Records
---
Amino acid sequence: MSHLVRPTILLLKDGSETAQGTSHVIHNVNACQAVSQILRTTLGPRGMDKLIYKGNSVTISNDGRTIIDLLDIVHPAAKTLVDIARAQDSQVGDGTTTVVILASEFLKQAKTFVEDGVHPQTIIGAYRKACSIVLDKLTDLAVDKSKDGKDLGLVLKYCAQTALQSKLVSTHRDFFAKMCVDAVLSLDRENFDLRMIGIEKVPGGSVTESIFVQGVAFKKTFSYAGFEQQPKKFAKPFIVLLNVELELKAEKENAEIRIKDPAEYQSIVDAEWKIIYNKLEAIVKCGAKVVLSRLPIGDLATQYFADHDIFCAGRVPEAQLRRVAAATGGIVQTSLADLNKEVQGTCDLFEERQIGAERYNFFTGCSNAKTSTIILRGGAEQFIEETHRSLWDALNIVKRSLQHQQVVGGGGAIEMELSRYLRDVSKQIKDKSQMILGCYAKALEVIPRQLAHNAGFDATDVVNQLRFKHANGNRWFGVNIEDGSVCDTLEHFVWEPAMNKKSAISAATEAACTILAIDETIKNAKAQDAAGQQANRAVPNPYAGQAAGGRPSIR
């Protein structure tokens, strides 16, 4: 009878680990909820900050993308939340915390159905149907304020203020919101490239001493002694932008020159000096008063320009040189053969100014400027870094609001209205997906609930008030952070781009569906050592086989 015994099939390598079944799905859901628990308290205007230190660096932030990047999450399913947070940040620029909390809540509501034996594909199908219904309704609810007679700049300002309200600089949101709107409006309307907005950070002073420059400002580059003799201010100067080295090259080590007469060596030296002087004379003759180069400008050239009342700066970062070109209309030159007026830039005023302990070069009054600069001030380095992250989110929100001018009420108003509508729709469905749609609708309430909780209010009482208001047709009522009541957020100018909410809901739904669709995880314990083993094949290890490596577990 031994021939009837079914042989064991060894499919995976020895040391591989597998996890599958309902318990595995629950395990993945729990891992995602653990990530959400970290971020939940950072949501909203009264959200708390997280202090994260890695090595010698310390980061204080309530920005979801920053926190989730610094956590170094290793769980394979929980990494999906990292991916959607990054996607939300790159596509919209804000709402990273919202998308993670929504995805986690969708999974939490699905967890009960999985434990009761409902097939994950049934839940996934119902979730995708619910997402489609919600997104269609959101499109209908969105309000185009520009068509209501509102000034576009005012609409953008309110959207920027709402984005900054949950940040560390919320008390100065009026000040920075105007700065963000002016910066985005200065860009090229075809692509709105935010890389053309320079953000400089100067420690010291008050945050209200931050400066917006309609043009370009960058930190003074390395310079030689003759630099101090150069003029530091010009009115309507011509500007030459170069990618040329204006420096005498040192001889290479062990260089060898065979000559028969010492005069020949002098002729070589004279030729080198003649080359550099010809370059400098060409620049002087073109009539430019400001010379910027991406490559070094040596001490000889610096002194030469000082003698001719010309300002120069070498080793200018490429990004700054590109921004100066965009602002002044100049073209970066790789040779000095033809420095005519067509390739030179100009501005109304160039000056070097002291900002805190640093010196900055300012190019202002550029008629066709498609770039701008924000110089941030602050007492602590961590505060300035968080201000930078906050402004970057606000800049992205203003950009999206300019491209898609539809807005919705913030403060959890749109989530409550979508939840109410989806509940009504679910009552018209007669199969088991009715309950799943109802749970999806309940999951949307997590945003106003968490906003109220983070502000120290009774979340249950606030959500009940919102349900009552929305059931009576008050679609834009959301959480009033000031006193714990509810208010019409659209009337109180708490506006968010509709694009932001659409992206967050769709990304969170897809992430939840992706995690629910995973029924088995297979991990090869030796996969992480594959690269090391391949490298060791070239040099045989005489001690190979004497010690066995540890087997990592799925966390």
Note: Confidence is low (pLDDT under 50) at residues 537-555.
---
Amino acid sequence: MKYHRHGGSWPGYLVHHCGTPGMIRRGRARGEWVSHRTISAACGSCSHSSSSMSESRTRKLRRSSDAVPTPPVHDHDESSREYHSDGPDSPASSHRGDDTSSSALGYKVSSYDRGRKSLVGLYEGRTSLLSSENKEHVSFRGALNLALILLIFANLRTVVSNIILVGNRININHLIVVDTTRWPGIALAAFLNLFLICSYLVERAAVGGMKDSTVDVLQAVNVAAAVIIPSALVWVVRPNPATGVLLMCGVCVVMMKLISYWRVNSQLRAMWRSSHKKSSDGYPHNISLFNLYWFMCLPFLVYQIEYPRTPKIRWTFLFSRLGQMVFLGALGYIMVEQYIIPVLDTSVEALDNADVLGIIAAVLRLALPHIYVWLIFFYIFFHLWLNVLAEITRVGDRCYYRDWWNSTGLDYFWRTWNIPVHHWMNVHVYTPMRKRKYSRHFAVFVVFVISGFFHELVVSVPFHTIKLWAFFGLLGQLPLITITRGLVHGQTGNVVFWVSFILGQPTLTMMYHYAVMKEHLLD
């Protein structure tokens, strides 16, 4: 019997011709057989003479795995070497090493006679890819693509169904203001400038020697007037509700900036007087109308004399942000008119009849477009508009929000979704109260009371209904923060946050819409 080693390509495995026609015996007598035709095609240049082998000799070789005679090495051509390469699909690859061999895995290898290929090393100890026990990195790019495609198709279906049910509700004509008496912007701007000038004059008088107590009283009256007079103007003139919401947001911003301008200059003035009226950190040179109006244009609510600056205005960046604002603003308007208002109109009947299933259906129908619109206008204001202001004023600090979408609790959301307001509350409300020995819980309670006042002011005045739902909704965040902080964490907390966020806001919107319809439009 003749043996040969195939070019070292299957190391340690001896191949010989056996007595079975059409088969080739592979070494180490493990009972493993491969096709004679395949080897013959790969080793066509080799001339081996087949010899008969007795049946007893065959059984002996099958039982013995160690006593295999060392054959003489026979040279082969390139085709033989290529066939017996150590690729991952070669039969020999399943025998290399103790970890990947069939014996190491504990599986018994079966031999297949007469032309059947052996199954060697197909099985090993593994977990399912979707199992939580799986440690192997698995890419879900295809699943993500599927999710995006399904999301697109679902939204396209919603668009088509909405057009079939309610038709085209977009009307550009009512956006054009014809009657100037219906647009309180000019009068509001005039009143706001009056309050800015008054605040400046009071600070100039304080530099000249006015008592601090008198300064505080005058500034407090001026801030109160800056809120009451514009709010009364919006209530009486009755502008478009969307316009009224924007105006009241502007009133809140001006009020907060005037308070910061007053309180920070009060601290700078005390330092200036303690240093025998030597210039301290730029005070009192900062008391000027230009400095005050420059602060009003900044994307911050806390006053400082100096801010980090950028070297120049990037005009390409600026106009790209303005273009995105126009596009996304139009998209948000379309979604409000086409998807939100029709659902709000149909929810009135369900609320009248106390139809629980109808109310739940309305909230669910409202949830998706409502969160879309909220995210769009969040992006427009906090990312686009504030970056536009920062680019025009060349302010270097562009952090106006953090990763609130990863919130594992409501407390993290309220700290990170609106950084300018968070800084203002921390500097002018929370920290002063803590310095006066108030408890932490009471200081947080006062912060949420002030925040609830702002939210109620923005909603109630433009819609001419005072329900205090937004105010108590903010106060209701305190027990929810305490509950979620102790019960849920990590991914579970994030899911709880998103569920409460997606369902809570449309519910509040539906309640305010129902109140407005019952009090003003359906009477």
Note: Residues 425 and 447 are 7 Å apart (CA to CA).
